[in-house]
Amino acid sequence: MAAISTASLPDIVFMLLFFFMMTTVMQTEDEMVKVVRPEVSEVYKIEKKHLIRYINIGQPQDARYGTEPVIQLNDQFAEASAIRDWVDVERLTLAESEQTKMWVSLKVDKDTKMGVVTDVKQELRKASALKVLYSANSRERTGS
Predict the structure, then answer these.
(1) Which of 2, 11, 32, 87 is deepest in the core (most CB within 10 A)?
(2) Average of pLDDT values for 85-104?
(3) Is the pLDDT of residue 25 over 80?
(4) d(Cα 105, Cα 56) in Å, to the nearest integer?
(5) For residue 7, which phi and psi values (nearest 5 degrees)?
(6) Coil, strand, or helix at residue 61?
């Protein structure tokens, strides 16, 4: 009986390894704020996650930064006034055909006052970032 040639096996293994390395998405930012997301009964899942950019709002995890809610853009704290510039920079990271399709997801701690969220939403509106998501945890729907 003739033996099966395994000469091309290393090529196939490296091709698969390269494929998975190129298609895997790594977490690129650390959450520097405490975010306990609220629970909701209706959830909409976005398919094209590469179009989503995240803004975290909550109490800083490091007590050196105080106890008041702060805004985290990428890996740094920022004021609401910096959001317009951030949106412009984040749009440029997308392909030109997808720049108008960018979503902004707000990960907001459930105990955060709405004043901070309103300021963020106003700045997003000024930056023409009108597709806004609210990140939440799913819960069972209760019947009446």
Answers:
(1) 87
(2) 94
(3) no
(4) 8
(5) -65, -35
(6) coil
b or e along 57-66 (b: 16 or more beta carbons within 10 Å of the residue's beta carbon)? bbbbeeeeee
Tell me what pLDDT residue 124 has: 96
> In this structure, what are the phi and psi dihedrals at residue 136, rounded to the nearest 5 degrees?
-150, 165
Burial degree of 94 (CB within 10 A; 0-12, 13-18, 19+) = middle
The residue among 130, 74, 122, 124 whose CA lies nearest residue 100 is 130
What three-state secondary structure class fits 50? helix
CA angle 56, 95, 50 (to 5 degrees): 40
Give the ranges where the chain is alpha helix by DSSP (H). 9-23, 83-92, 114-126
Give the pLDDT of residue 38. 84
pTM over 0.90? The answer is no
pLDDT at 4: 82
How large is the angle between the packed helices 114-126 and 83-92, nearest 10 degrees?
50
